[in-house]
Design goal:
This protein is an alpha+beta fold and 229 residues long. It is 36% helix and 15% strand.
Length: 229
């Protein structure tokens, strides 16, 4: 095992207590739009950090944070701690440009592909996973390799995710956000609000990775609150 791969394993270990996962990475190229580090050095490796299953929610719930944007702030604090231990900087999806291309970064780091819903589908976790942030390093780090594969969605004949929404908010390559939010604010929409998006539930991949109603409901409430503010 090389020193570089040992570093990736150490980062994985440091994240584990918080239920977060090191989710692959890549050596940067200009098209990745990776920002420079705070000290001016170029970012040469990006390691994605995310979650799948219930572990992150269990760790987050034990802390019971009540500040605004609690999950983002909690995630950022963990990533900053791990970054400080390993000479890295942190980028968050909420940072905005130039840190916006998280989906592209994720597809460079793992065998994930855009689903008909626009969410990235993972071959094991389906649609029940997320990316909390990324660690940026000034050196090249050996990261797990993944073989290029085809999206599972390409071979899903019925694509039930597109027909499961009660208000047809999802069309191929189109998400009718206003229709979705309007439904969630009705009594009929409380099933989605408390149990998670029906379209995501309809995907046959990764159903065992559903993190639970508490986490799903938290994200749905945050989504509606963000659209209403």
């Amino acid at each position: 095992m090389s020193i570089a791969s040992e570093l990736y394993d150490a980062i994985s270990h440091d994240l584990r207590e918080s239920g977060l996962l090191a989710r692959g990475g890549f050596s940067t190229r200009e098209s990745d739009q990776a920002p420079d580090l705070r000290d001016g050095r170029a970012a040469r490796t990006v390691i994605m950090v995310g979650n799948a299953g219930p572990s992150m929610w269990q760790a987050f719930s034990r802390k019971q944070p009540t500040d605004p944007d609690p999950l983002d702030r909690w995630s950022h604090a963990i990533l900053e701690r791990v970054a400080a231990q390993h000479d890295a900087d942190v980028a968050m999806p909420s940072d905005g440009p130039p840190f916006a291309p998280f989906q592209r970064w994720a597809m460079r780091a793992e065998p994930v592909f855009p689903s008909p819903l626009g969410l990235l589908i993972h071959p094991t976790w389906g649609l029940w996973h997320g990316y909390r942030g990324a660690l940026l390093f000034p050196m090249v780090i050996e990261v797990p390799r993944h073989e290029a594969t085809e999206s599972l969605c390409d071979h899903c004949e019925n694509q039930p995710c597109l027909s499961a929404c009660p208000v047809d908010a999802f069309q191929r390559n189109d998400y009718r956000v206003d229709a979705c939010v309007a439904h969630l604010e009705t009594p009929e929409g409380q099933i989605c609000m408390t149990s998670g998006c029906r379209a995501r539930h309809a995907c046959p991949v990764g159903q065992s990775a559903f993190p639970g109603a508490d986490q799903a409901g938290f994200h749905m409430r945050a989504f509606v609150s963000g659209r209403s503010s």
